[in-house]
Amino acid sequence: MAWWSDLVNEQPEFAERVRTRFAVRKHGTMATLRRDGSPRISGTEFDFDAEHLRLGSMAGARKAMDLRRDPRVALHCPTEDAPDDPTAWEGDAKISGVAHEDPPGEDGSHRFRIEVTEVVLTRVGDPPDHLVIESWHPDRGLRRRERR
Prior knowledge:
Blueprint: H1 4-10, H2 12-22, E1 27-33, E2 39-48, E3 53-57, H3 62-69, E4 72-76, E5 92-102, E6 110-124, E7 131-137, E8 141-147
Antiparallel strand pairs: 1-2, 1-4, 2-3, 3-6, 4-5, 5-6, 6-7, 7-8
Helix pairs in contact: 1-2
């Protein structure tokens, strides 16, 4: 089992670059699994504290019901484009994990801590003729590859 703090302790610079991508805007994207196994995409807010990556939802929200039934989740950072200069694109971060529900908020809202199973950061390389894909997995650590 790995929490956000495990990544921060093992790969602090990589974790900070990932967190920065998630902080570019307030809302990112979350994928959950519906009862029939098909994907559901929802907007959500992320919170990174010293120990955990957390997310929440309003009481009774479909995405929360999905996570209660099947806690597997995929998160995608808010998207930023650089249409005038593709080389200025800062990158894209994704986190896969398992949601663990915390006690509800006073208003009945749902709160989850995310057990991290994989983190991926993709960006334009230097020179800008390729992509750099960095991925971290609790069992294998950080890996980097290039795609041309």
